[in-house]
């Protein structure tokens, strides 16, 4: 058991990222589980916290098996896992239907978590993408590619724990990858936490409010 809970994991991760303190950083969390981890990092680095809303596109008959992932944005980014699509015999119409359902869920979460708040501009900044762990890496890959398209100065992936195989595959997607520990065989992310209870919507909203960017000069408080 590597970490007590996500807050413990976030504090340990923040120590490993200490060199980024007071730099032009924005921390981007994958909700919901990545938010408590990322909030600890954002607070330690004195950086604002924002979300990358990404959803796994699961095989219709096996929703836990990722055949791709989708990330929100002006033009949503879709990452396909062609091997899984072919292996599972998924028709294109079925793929698109699951994708549409996940985009609808992304929109629901954006309104719930952020309301009318604009996303933080990462262009020219150090973007640190944080989750509570990486198993297959499908959603993480989509999140990194979507963030890269927003032109950060540097793209960093930071996680407490990950599958060794997935971590190796993600090295080319970021400028720096920081993982406190990796394992193979990996199993599930929850195996490495004593307390891995589901993160609530309320916890996500509270963390975003706590780590919101400071108002610009002249802007109402």
- How far apart, in Å, are the first and last alpha carbons? 43 Å
Number of helices: 7
Low-confidence stretches: 217-221
Helix % is 25-40%
Order of helices and strands, N to C?
HEHEEEEHHEHEHEH
CATH topology of the largest domain: Rossmann fold
Q: Give the rounded overall mean pLDDT.
A: 91
**Relative strand content:** 15-25%
Task: Give the spatial strand order of the biggest sheet.
Answer: 2-1-6-7-8
Number of domains: 2
CATH class category of the largest domain? Alpha Beta
Strand elements, count: 8
Name the structural class. Answer: alpha/beta
Describe what this molecule looks like in 3D.
The structure is a single chain. The protein is of the alpha/beta class and 221 residues long. It contains seven helices and eight strands. It has helices spanning 6-16, 34-45, 82-88, 92-114, 138-148, 164-170, 201-210, and strands at residues 25-29, 49-51, 54-59, 62-71, 77-80, 126-130, 154-163, 176-183. The strands form two sheets. Strands 2-1-6-7-8 form a five-stranded parallel sheet. The chain has a three-stranded antiparallel sheet with strand order 3-4-5. Helix 1 (6-16) packs parallel to helix 2. The longest helix has 23 residues, at 92-114. The N and C termini lie far apart (43 Å). 41% of the residues are buried. Residues 217-221 have low confidence and may be disordered.
């Amino acid at each position: 058991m590597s970490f007590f809970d996500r807050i413990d994991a976030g504090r340990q991760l923040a120590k490993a990222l200490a060199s980024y303190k007071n730099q032009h950083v924005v921390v981007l969390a994958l909700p919901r589980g990545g938010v408590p981890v990322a909030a600890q990092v954002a607070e330690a680095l004195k950086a604002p916290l924002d979300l990358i809303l990404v959803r796994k596109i699961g095989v219709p008959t096996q929703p836990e098996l990722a055949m791709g992932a989708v990330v929100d944005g002006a033009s949503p980014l879709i990452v396909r896992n062609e091997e899984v699509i072919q292996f599972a015999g998924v028709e294109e119409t079925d793929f698109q239907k699951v994708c549409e359902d996940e985009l609808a869920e992304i929109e629901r979460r954006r309104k719930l978590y952020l309301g009318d708040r604009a996303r933080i501009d990462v262009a020219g900044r150090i973007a640190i993408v944080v989750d509570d762990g990486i198993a297959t890496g499908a959603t993480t890959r989509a999140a990194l590619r979507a963030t890269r398209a927003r032109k950060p100065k540097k793209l960093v992936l930071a996680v407490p724990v990950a599958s060794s195989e997935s971590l190796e595959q993600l090295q080319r997607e970021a400028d720096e990858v920081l993982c406190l520990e990796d394992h193979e065989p990996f199993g599930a992310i929850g195996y490495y936490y004593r307390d891995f209870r589901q993160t609530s919507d309320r916890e996500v909203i509270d963390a975003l409010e706590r780590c919101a960017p400071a108002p610009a000069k002249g802007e109402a408080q």
